[in-house]
Structures are given as structure tokens and as C-alpha cells.
Specification:
Elements (H helix, E strand, L loop, with lengths): L1 H4 L3 H12 L4 E2 L1 H8 L3 H14 L2 E6 L2 E6 L6 H19 L1
Antiparallel strand pairs: 1-3, 2-3
Helix pairs in contact: 2-5, 3-4
């Protein structure tokens, strides 16, 4: 259902991870392994999500670590949508 509203597959996967696990922190390559997508596409989407304020980043040496901005104006609503969507998908599979 989320795919109707968020058409980018990579962006959708990233939003689901960070909304479902708000304390999750990782770098581009770690996220690429987790969601099995190209690191270049992930980096582009992470930059977009950081630009709009959904994600924050911090430097640790040469590595940029991304994490959820829990103060993002619609974070709670987005998180709720993701969780409901996940439950809906699980019910369909059963």
C-alpha cells in the first residue's frame, strides 16, 4: 500500500527502516547490505531525505552516519502509516 504513495522503491525501503526503527543509525554501505540495494541509489535518497529533514547525519571520521530526525514535523504520522502498512501486508500474507 505504501508503494502507491511513495513510488521510489529505494526511498520506500529507507523510510520503512527509519520509521520502524527510529533509533537505527547506519552508513550508506551498511544500509545497502541491509536492504539489498545499490549504494549509489541509497546515497542519493538519503541526501534527499536529509534535505527535507526526515533524516539527520553526523560525521564519524570519513563516514557519514544517518539517523531519524524524531523532531520531523510529520514523523509520528509517517511512522504510524508505515506500521499500519506493515501490519496490513502481514495479514495479506497469512
Amino acid at each position: 500500500m505504501l508503494d502507491i504513495f511513495i513510488t521510489s522503491r529505494v526511498r520506500r525501503k529507507i523510510i520503512v527502516i527509519y520509521a520502524k526503527y527510529p533509533d537505527f543509525k547506519t552508513h550508506v554501505r551498511g544500509l545497502a547490505k541491509l536492504i539489498k540495494e545499490d549504494a549509489g541509489n541509497i546515497q542519493r535518497e538519503l541526501k534527499r531525505l536529509e534535505k527535507v529533514g526526515f533524516l539527520l547525519s553526523e560525521r564519524q571520521g570519513n563516514t557519514k552516519i544517518y539517523h531519524t530526525n524524531k523532531q520531523f514535523p510529520i514523523f509520528k504520522e509517517l511512522q504510524s502509516i508505515v506500521l499500519k502498512s506493515q501490519r496490513s501486508n502481514q495479514k495479506k500474507q497469512v
